[in-house]
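To make the argument concrete, we let one protein speak, a sequence paired with a row of structure tokens, as a model reads it:
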Amino acid sequence: MAYRLKLAQKITVVKNVWDLSRVDGPASVPVGRISQARMKLKERVICTTPDGTATLFTVQGRNILEIRGTYEVADAAGNVLAVITKDFRASLGRSTYVVESSAGTWKVTETNPTLAVLRRIVNVVVDIPWLLPIQFSILDAGGNSVGCINRVVLRIRDTYDIAVTDDRLDQRVAAAVGVAVDAFMNR
């Protein structure tokens, strides 16, 4: 079953916060609130229900400050749903992640290599992240496109549309990859 998610960043001083919604047709249903403390040596992201009473999933960095970031996505009980690894070599040209779970393996990579390089050049000169689009393709193990993660252009608040047609990719994992694209991409 295909699904669409919306990840919208809130403007806060102390931590990164995103609201996660499921978009079914014209309706948008709140799913959770995701938060990440800034300036931590080891990444930790928590997604709770919208009212904050229960944890839906967590994203935890395996190591402290590493070039090849590896993150575990776990459910509320701590069971690992997937492992997200930044492909360092591929990311020199365009940011690329490998997502592995018991249901399959996916590659999440910037869709347009020219735009990826241009974005890096612009970011060196001026830090205006909303100026250029950020578009990622989600590819299955056979290289077939099964979804995308796209930042909505020209918004000061980072907002991502996540569309997935492969129902083997758990929507909690897809949301975690959306957070990785926004928060971990330039590391």
Summary: The chain has one domain: 3-184. Residues 171-184 form the longest helix (14 residues). The mean pLDDT is 88. The longest strand covers residues 27-37.
